[in-house]
Amino acid sequence: MNVDLNELTGRAGEWMKGAGPQSDIVISSRIRLARNIAEFPFIRRCTATDRAAIDKAVRDRLAEVPKLNDLYYLRVDELSDVDRHFLAERQLISRELVEAEGARSVAIDPGERLSLMINEEDHLRIQVMKSGFDLVAAWDQINEVDDLLESKLTYAFHDKLGYLTACPTNVGTGMRVSVMLHLPALVITQQIEKVFRSLQKINLAVRGLYGEGSQAMGDFYQISNQITLGRSEIELRNQVHDVVPMIIDYERRARDFLLKQNQQDLHDKISRAYGILRTAQTISSEETMHLLSSVRMGVNLGLIDDLMIADINKLFVDTQPAHLQKLRGGPLDTAGRNSERALYLRRYLSQKEKDGADQN
Amino acid sequence: MNVDLNELTGRAGEWMKGAGPQSDIVISSRIRLARNIAEFPFIRRCTATDRAAIDKAVRDRLAEVPKLNDLYYLRVDELSDVDRHFLAERQLISRELVEAEGARSVAIDPGERLSLMINEEDHLRIQVMKSGFDLVAAWDQINEVDDLLESKLTYAFHDKLGYLTACPTNVGTGMRVSVMLHLPALVITQQIEKVFRSLQKINLAVRGLYGEGSQAMGDFYQISNQITLGRSEIELRNQVHDVVPMIIDYERRARDFLLKQNQQDLHDKISRAYGILRTAQTISSEETMHLLSSVRMGVNLGLIDDLMIADINKLFVDTQPAHLQKLRGGPLDTAGRNSERALYLRRYLSQKEKDGADQN
């Protein structure tokens, strides 16, 4: 099933909905499985012909599975650069798949909860994303998808090691469990480093919004397991699952502290951030993330009435470079994007303010 | 005629109207004359009894002059500290009169164009203020008031020196001619120092908003004559009168340059300033002046539609400490003022925005 990417532009993907459990602090819960097909060499050793054959094999098998044959199937190497980045900004593909070479694809369900990357670091990367804190549902879905695929494909599997992967860090379960958290109060109260050190001690990794090596912009932090071997999938899932409520609790306490300590200063910071977003004539992506982070906390604390969390999540995505260019319908340089971003924010937020005023 | 100062609170004084010639750049034109009554010693040598006698003498003579007998006459030493500062913020009295000791007064016309300070540095300081660039009208009025007073009081006058004053710098005409200019573009383009040096070379002084020693907040600069002796009143008036159009021209060129150079950056700066003023929950007087200065230029350049110059001038005055406390109806500490100031700005500007939206 093919899809016009422009169709996705106006929609809210799964993680933007802000609808799941604890979605004031937890943006999304994600699980991915790394899988390889036994009959092909690992990607690094593949010829162009191998890659094309892998791509075709996966596509053909998907068509045979009733529950997976309605996925959008996109040849990433045939997309424009803007479209590739567009998919990455929606977290449907990884930065690695954007920058990889040769035949590579992604299959996405229309709700943007499931995505299958073909020819990323491994032949297959299965990813399920849920809004809010919902790792159990994510596991149930990915486990079913994995079983469905395994009924059609022979995975590279070793009796003692488990699933074989291109990088040794993924061998075993091939599973990465991650939760994206919004932790502005821990950042303001300078407790975030302490939280990170505690997580590292129990072998959990902390990363920015776009995974490995990316900066933690907008106070978003992704927490995930580092170990994939020697534990069951459920154990790995539970390790992340059990620690997240503690971090949520720390963040809530930090927010309470800020409110008690000096509600006016916090309100001032949040309110000014909202004011700048509504009036800037040119604004960078980084400043936008920074200000939206304040506003998001303001919505959660009841200090801003006009907006809902879904609005903020949508703005986080829509103001990124590829989304802006898709919305504008043409390429834009940095200055052009900064101007278009400011225009988009002003229009969106003044409409919301108007809607809010009409309701009162 | 007595006056309840609360009556003035809601009103716009002469210099706030923004109605006079060139009022996009010239806030006000002011002339003051220093006079002393021959039968009394200079203020510094006065006893408390002398001061009271001077105050009574002036008050009694004013009552005899038909054109001056409807002035509000206020005993400044009997006012509260907030009320004294309130008058200074409206530029009806000087900081010196606020801080002086003993019997002292001010007589003000209801339109706040004329004010007579009694027992400031000299027995009498006559001041006439006009909105915009209007020194000729200011001179005509002050000359008439001076003649009316001189018909009732014997001024200290020396045939060769002219009017005698407490400070030698005022001897002769006792006249200071000053024009208050708003020069944000010369500040941004870093040409303001150059302009000042040129003015100093022709013996003109440059000061901030509240006269001698005060900081130039909000890009307001007061230009005035330094020499009072050896030239006629008309010559002194013309010296300032002739130089102001050149400064206005420099400022306009600097604005054009900024618009051509990078209209978007200028618009961004102005628009954000407006956004912060509309949303801050706490804001200092200094930051308010700074932001209002940007917004004032924005209104003049047609980049902000909701406001008129009169609104900005009013906000400059109303957000100052004594005005805020008068508006609130009680004393406020710094934190309380910063909060009240932000509240006042939000209410005023959201009302203007609403009015603007209703008109469109």
From TrEMBL, chains A, B:
CDD domains (alphabetical): bacterial_phosphagen_kinase (cd07930)
Gene: mcsB
Name of the protein in its database record: Protein-arginine kinase
NCBIfam families (UniProt xref): PRK01059.1-4
UniProt-listed GO biological process terms: phosphocreatine biosynthetic process
InterPro entries per UniProt: Arg_Kinase, ATP-guanido_PTrfase, ATP-guanido_PTrfase_AS, ATP-guanido_PTrfase_cat, Gln_synth/guanido_kin_cat_dom
Enzyme Commission number(s): 2.7.14.1
Keywords: ATP-binding, Kinase, Nucleotide-binding, Transferase
Protein family per UniProt: Belongs to the ATP:guanido phosphotransferase family.
This protein's GO CC annotations: extracellular space
Ligand binding (ATP): 28-32, 125, 176-180, 207-212
Catalytic activity annotation: L-arginyl-[protein] + ATP = N(omega)-phospho-L-arginyl-[protein] + ADP + H(+)
GO molecular function: ATP binding; creatine kinase activity; protein arginine kinase activity
Enzyme class label: transferase
Entries under PROSITE patterns matching the protein: PHOSPHAGEN_KINASE, PHOSPHAGEN_KINASE_C
Function comment: Catalyzes the specific phosphorylation of arginine residues in proteins.
Domain called Phosphagen kinase C-terminal: residue spans: 25-254
Presence of keyword Ribonucleoprotein: no
Residue spans crossing the bilayer: none
Species: Blastopirellula marina
